[in-house]
Amino acid sequence: MAGLSGATRARSASPGPPPALDGSFFLSPLGGLMCAQAVLGLLVWSLIAATTYHLHAAYGWVMFVSLFFWILTLLFFVTYLLQLHQKFYMIPWPLVLMIYNAVATVLYITAFVTCAAAVQPTSWRQWDYNRRAAASFFACVTMITYGVSTFFSFRAWKGLGSNAATSQVTDHA
């Protein structure tokens, strides 16, 4: 390392340009759905966390699903917002997102059904009932947003949004 000049050391130490912020991502369907999933998922797990969920095993599952997918959605959101998916071009991102959204949809179905079935109107704490009922509603809406994301991810994976000229060029290449 002693034989390297200062400019060579500086070039080899820098990993490249910093990630750029993609402002148009917020306006895309993927960005809008990810924002909605993050907000709705936050509502689900915060409403459950505000109750005595530890006394009921069913709410532990709802808490796990909502918190797990909330964190993963935030990670995917930051990845796309900072355009990090372009740096890792060897990963098939449309396929990864389609699988992620499909798994999230199925597990949110189970969380919604579990949460809705465990809500008891004769709860000894009225505020727990209200929060659990609201969490059940928001879990349903979150499940729907993941289902819509699965649909759009499938279309992106299959390339159904492209025009005929683009699909003919890529099919024969």
Name the features.
MARVEL-CKLF_proteins; Plasmolipin; 73% helix; 2 domains; 173 residues; elongated
Describe the structure.
This protein is mostly helical. It has 2 domains: 30-51 and 58-89, no CATH class; 92-165. 73% of the residues lie in helices and 0% in strands. It is built from 7 helices and no strands. The protein has helices spanning 6-13, 29-49, 57-81, 84-87, 93-118, 126-158, 164-172. The protein starts with 5 loop residues before the first helix and ends with a helix. Mean pLDDT is 82; it is low at 4-14 and 163-173.
Beta-strand residue percentage: under 5%
Number of strands: 0
Total domain modules: 2
**Roughly how much helix do the residues carry, as a percent range?**
over 70%
Q: pLDDT under 50 segments (min length 5)?
A: 4-14, 163-173
CA-based gyration radius:
22 Å
Q: Give me the number of helical elements.
A: 7
Brief synopsis:
The chain has helices at residues 6-13, 29-49, 57-81, 84-87, 93-118, 126-158, 164-172. The protein is mainly alpha-helical and 173 residues long.
Topology:
Blueprint: H1 6-13, H2 29-49, H3 57-81, H4 84-87, H5 93-118, H6 126-158, H7 164-172
Helix pairs in contact: 2-3, 2-6, 3-5, 5-6
